[in-house]
Amino acid sequence: MKAKRYSTEFKSSIVALYNEGRTANSLANEYHLAVQTVTGWVKNLKSIPTDLILKIVHFFSIRS
């Protein structure tokens, strides 16, 4: 089975919500993701400040 791909905008949004205090478990349940998927994105993007992540999300939202 082919792995599902998520956009950078979506991943950044999830990480921003995590950085605002949401748990990986609650995000996984709400967005129908594996907890390991959420924690992997957080780990990969943890060095990026939340305000920069939000700017990325905004940038992609105005391009759509």
Essential attributes:
single chain; 4 helices; 64 residues; globular
What percentage of the residues does DSSP assign to strands (E)? Answer: under 5%
Query: What structural class do helix, strand and pairing data support?
Result: mainly alpha
Distance from first to last alpha carbon: 29 Å
Low-confidence stretches: none
Helix content: over 70%
Query: What is the string of helix and strand elements?
Result: HHHH
* Oligomeric state of the chains present here: single chain
User: Given the structure, what is the number of helices?
Assistant: 4
Would you give an account of this structure?
The protein is mainly α and 64 residues long. Helix content is 70%, strand content 0%. It contains four helices and no strands. α1 (8-19) packs across α3 (35-45), α1 (8-19) packs antiparallel against α4 and α2 crosses α3 (35-45). The radius of gyration is 12 Å and the shape is globular.
